Amino acid sequence: MKKLGSTGRAWLKGFHILFTCAWVGAGICMFLLNFVARPNNGHDLYVVMTALKLIDDWAIIPSAVGSLFTGLLISWLTPWGFFKWRWVTVKWILTIAMTFFGFFYLSPWLNQMAAISTADPLSALQDETFLTNHWLLSLSGAPMFFAMLCLVFISVFKPWKQTRSTPSAQHEGSEQRPRVDGNPRRGREQVNTQAVQLGDGVDVVPSGQ
Question: Which residues form the domain of 185?
Answer without folding.
Answer: 167-198
